[in-house]
Design goal:
12 helices; Heat Shock Protein 90; elongated; 529 residues
């Protein structure tokens, strides 16, 4: 087909070029040459008329057609020579006309003009008129031959144009027929060599796609189709292998899922029992502790007069140890409750949560003279209002608690929105004693303390509780270790509805037990009193 297209293009281009050449020759050269011939002959007639009129009237203005005719003759002859320069016969006719015209002017026109005196008309002799007519008739004979030759050239050009157009039409029609025939032959070849093998490959592929993975794909035909069939067969074999491996993996995963389900059931049961045990144990632990503290106080009250200072000191140690054990148990319960009990998911105004936290810390803030700088507006997020209030209370409380003894505590709270990650970034900065960089991670571990109880009280659970609250709401908390003075605690909270992730697993079993454990009975309160 490519060869046919190239050959047809070359032949068609040659035919079109030949037709264009003949058309251009006829339209751009012969027809204009004919026009210029008529102008040349008209110029000669004007010369003859002007000379005869000037000879009769002796009026100089009658020479104007003669002079203008000579100029027109020169222009027409020059243009005509350009148009027929490649045709010797027509060029010879032109030269003959010019030669006869020159003889007429030399033998008749110019001598006659010289004999005429301007302003003195004379009768022209009959012999001069006849001689001039005879000479000019020779010009007419020559240009008649010129017109005949030019007309014959035009007729020949038109005949050649018609012949060329006929040949072009026949050849182009034959080319179209050959193209159509080649297209039909190619269609049959494509059908026999490509379409049928492709149909067979399609049928085999569908059979495999319907689930018959053991069906072997074998295709005959051109090398390209055989290569495609080989690739499809290789893909089928790969699918069979992957399917076998997937089925084996599925069986393994099914077995593992069953084991995980059994472990999850056992884990939920174990967590439920552990929670219930924790609440009951905390209640049972606090009961003897309260008794130890109360009876130690009763001993001091009843036998204080008979005890020496060391005995009173021992009683104070026992009472202090029992109270610290109660505080430690209550802190553990608080830590374990995060995300388990009363896990609310409601819109929380962090301004209100911070205000509640500051109200709870009002006494310590006033005692230390702390200055708290807070943003004009804090955002609203989805979370647990109690836990978020507890978060602010622990962060601000730590800043107040660990203030520098020689500086007035100054606490600055900031808030920025990170639209790219969809989170709010918060920071609590103080000018306190600071946290060394090597302890930046350790302070978030439960019960980790950097100072002795004599210097700062507490159980070391505050920042661990803050970390659990922040992570429960889907955020992250850390210490900015780049500060040279004081401490900056930074944390993030999601700005959308968010779903906090809590890794704790368990049930709410033991709620009532814990409530009872956290609240002493009336008898115990009286005993403690």
């Amino acid at each position: 087909m490519v060869l046919l297209v190239v050959a047809g293009t070359v032949v068609g281009a040659r035919l079109l070029g030949q037709t264009a050449d003949v058309t251009d020759q006829l339209a751009d050269r012969l027809q204009p040459a004919r026009t210029q011939t008529y102008r040349l002959q008209a110029a000669l007639v004007n010369q003859e008329t002007g000379v005869r009129g000037y000879a009769i009237t002796a009026d100089h203005q009658f020479l104007e057609p003669y002079v203008q005719g000579k100029r027109d003759e020169a222009r027409a002859a020059a243009r005509l020579r350009d148009l027929i320069g490649d045709r010797p016969r027509l060029l010879a006719d032109l030269e003959a006309v010019q030669r006869e015209a020159a003889d007429w002017r030399r033998a008749y026109a110019e001598p006659l003009v010289e004999k005429v005196t301007p302003g003195e008309p004379k009768a022209v002799a009959e012999t001069n008129v006849q001689r001039g007519k005879k000479v000019f008739d020779r010009i007419r004979t020559v240009w008649a031959a010129q017109n005949a030759d030019l007309a014959e050239a035009v007729d020949d050009g038109r005949a050649e144009l018609d012949s060329t157009r006929t040949v072009r039409t026949v050849v182009l029609g034959s080319m179209v027929a050959v193209f159509l025939l080649a297209g039909v032959v190619l269609a049959f070849l494509v059908r026999a060599l490509v379409a049928r093998p492709l149909e067979a490959l399609r049928a085999s592929s569908r059979q495999v796609a319907r689930g018959d993975f053991d069906h072997v794909i074998t295709i005959d035909g051109p090398s390209d189709l055989r290569a495609v069939a080989a690739d499809v067969e290789g893909m089928r074999q790969q699918i069979v292998e992957e399917l076998g491996a997937s089925r084996r993996q599925r069986d393994i995963l099914t077995q593992q899922a069953a084991e995980l389900d059994a472990q999850a059931v056992e884990l939920r049961r174990s967590n439920a029992e552990l929670e219930q045990f924790a609440y009951v144990a905390s209640h049972d632990l606090q009961e003897p502790l309260r008794k130890v503290a109360s009876f130690c106080q009763l001993l001091e009250k009843r036998y204080g007069d008979t005890l020496d200072d060391r005995g009173k000191q021992y009683i104070d140690f026992a009472v202090d140890g029992a109270k610290r054990m109660q505080i430690l148990i209550n802190d553990l319960l608080t830590f374990s409750r995060v995300g388990r009990l009363n896990d609310a998911r409601v819109p929380v105004d962090l301004d209100q949560a911070l205000s509640k936290a500051l109200a709870n810390l009002d006494t310590s803030v006033q005692d230390t003279g702390a200055i708290v700088e807070r943003p004009e507006k804090l955002p609203e997020i989805i979370g647990d209002p109690t836990l978020l209030t507890m978060l602010w209370q622990n962060l601000v409380g730590n800043a107040v608690k660990f203030h520098h003894p020689e500086r007035t505590p100054r606490i600055r709270i900031t808030c920025e929105e990170d639209e790219g990650s969809g989170t709010w970034s918060f920071s609590v900065t103080d000018n306190g004693i600071g946290i060394p960089e090597e302890f930046a991670e350790k302070v978030f571990v439960i019960f980790q303390r950097l100072h002795g109880r004599d210097a700062y009280g507490g159980t070391g659970i505050g920042l661990a509780l803050c970390k659990k609250i922040v992570e429960h709401h889907g955020g992250h908390i850390w210490i900015d270790s780049g500060r040279a003075e004081g401490t900056r605690l930074c944390f993030t909270l999601p700005s959308d509805t968010g779903t906090g992730t809590d890794t704790d697993t368990g049930t709410e079993t033991g709620t009532e037990t814990d409530t009872a454990a956290a609240t002493p009975s009336r008898t115990e309160e009286e005993a403690l009193t």
